[in-house]
Design goal:
345 residues, mainly alpha
Length: 345
């Protein structure tokens, strides 16, 4: 394990968690908006806003909300505005992308079957790209100073709560460049000059969110949950082996109708191989290698196979998607625990 990897495991502020949290809020708002919009339209018989030949598509409302979010961040200051703009922008993006079917078909078909798969790919790529940028960028000394300065600005605007205040001080403690000591001390002195309010709405939301994720992580960390997930992988490996044996015995030739079918078949085979190898190392060791192989199988499934499932079954594929996310979250926590245990004391 490299020094960078070791630091990522041990340092609580090795990257800007607040930035990633804001993006996750944007993404959650977008996904929730798509699901709520489609459920509402289905329940109400797909009403049209307008009369006669006039129809105001909700993609326009989405564009308006995204514009409001951009303008809000351009003309106002403070983290409160930035967080609200993130939420509003996410809702706007959800309304926008929900109508993607109309803009990739010649007959403007809202019910275009692969539309959900297109949305899924966009959201997944968005998440992977943003997470990669935030984590790889990390937090250098200048970035830490900027976070401290923003906290000082929020304090002046009356928008800094207790949790953000303590977070800014901890981030500033990580500045290592001695030439920046005076600047760090100045920012800290400014933060110490006024006590932030305790129990504000932002603090309550942050505490509730942290408590939720803490309980969820404790649940996923539980031995019973881990064994359940690993048992599912064992069953999946057995099923993959049985399918291979059946195919060899029956001499059935699997044909691909088009390129997408071929890609899915290849990804399914790759997933099966990774699962079988993961289960093999699960029993033979090393345990960490087994967990990483099983995680890789889920990533291949989520990035490739799941796209095809959404294309075929649209919202019917949500259950399998949720199960895969649950298994992936459990594996990520298990891998993190094993990597931390492997670090030299």
């Amino acid at each position: 394990m490299t020094t960078k990897d070791r630091n990522a495991l041990t340092l609580p502020h090795s990257y800007d968690r607040a930035a990633l949290a804001r993006f996750e809020l944007f993404l959650f708002a977008g996904v929730a908006t798509v699901l709520i919009t489609r459920a509402y339209l289905a329940a109400t018989g797909y009403p049209q806003i307008g009369g006669g030949a006039l129809h105001i598509a909700h993609v326009l409302w989405g564009g308006l909300l995204m514009a409001v979010a951009i303008v809000a961040t351009a003309i106002t200051e403070g983290s409160r505005t930035r967080d609200l703009a993130t939420l509003v922008g996410g809702i706007g993006f959800g309304l926008f992308i929900d109508e993607v079917g109309k803009f990739v078909t010649s007959d403007v078909d809202y019910f275009y079957q692969p539309a959900i798969a297109i949305m899924y790919v966009v959201f997944v790529l968005f998440y992977l790209a943003a997470r990669e940028v935030v984590i790889r960028r990390g937090m250098n000394d200048r970035h830490r100073l900027a976070i401290g300065a923003r906290a000082l600005s929020d304090l002046a605007l009356g928008q800094l709560d207790e949790i953000q205040y303590n977070h800014a001080l901890r981030v500033l403690d990580g500045v290592e460049d001695r030439s920046l000591t005076d600047l760090v001390d100045s920012i800290k002195a400014g933060l110490h000059s006024q006590t932030p309010p305790v129990g504000g709405i932002e603090s309550k939301i942050t505490r509730s969110r942290n408590a939720f994720f803490h309980r969820a992580e404790e649940l996923l960390r539980h031995r019973v949950v881990r064994r359940l997930v690993l048992t599912l992988f064992v069953l999946q490996a057995v099923l993959a082996i049985v399918q291979v044996i059946y195919a060899l015995v029956s001499e059935n030739v699997v044909e691909a109708d088009d390129v997408s079918d071929l890609v899915v078949q290849i990804s399914t085979v790759a997933t099966g191989i990774l699962v079988v190898l993961g289960v093999w190392f699960l029993f033979r060791g090393p345990y960490l290698r087994a967990l990483r192989l099983l995680r890789a199988s889920l990533i291949v499934s989520l990035l490739v196979t799941q796209v095809y499932l959404f294309t075929q079954d649209q919202f019917g594929a949500l259950f399998g998607f949720a199960v895969s996310l649950f298994m992936l979250a459990t594996l990520r926590i298990a891998i993190r625990s094993e990597e931390a245990a492997a670090l030299p004391q």
